[in-house]
What does this fold into?
Amino acid sequence: MSLKKMIEEDLIAVCNMTKKQGDENSFKQMNLKVIYGEIQRLPEKDPRNDQVVKILKKLKKDAKENFITAQNFLNMIISYLPEEEEPMTEEEVEKWISDNIDFCDFKLNKMATIKIILGAIGNKTDGATVKKIIVEKF
It folds into this structure.
């Protein structure tokens, strides 16, 4: 099941539960609405899990930086995030690039490969690292 669908189902369940209890402004319901609202802002109707994770990580960072935000909101965001994967080292990224990318196809613009690389590697590295490796090594 996709993360978006899981969050959507949780929101529906919480809304139904709070209606029955007469508490339609519950903290959990408001937090889920914020999370779901951010996901709805994506241009894709059915976003990939990595896109949802990116939003959740941004909300997590914002919640940590904003002391007004309650700890419950942060905990809710964390509950939807998958286990953190170890980030790839620069050497691992460089090896992956050399094994999988043929720069002959990108003679004029090697930077066009950044999007392809990040799409394949996912959340294991960031764009700045990939760009640095391409500029220095390739």
About this structure: The chain has a mean pLDDT of 81. Residues 31 and 97 are 39 Å apart (CA to CA). The radius of gyration is 19 Å. The chain has two domains: 3-80, 90-137.
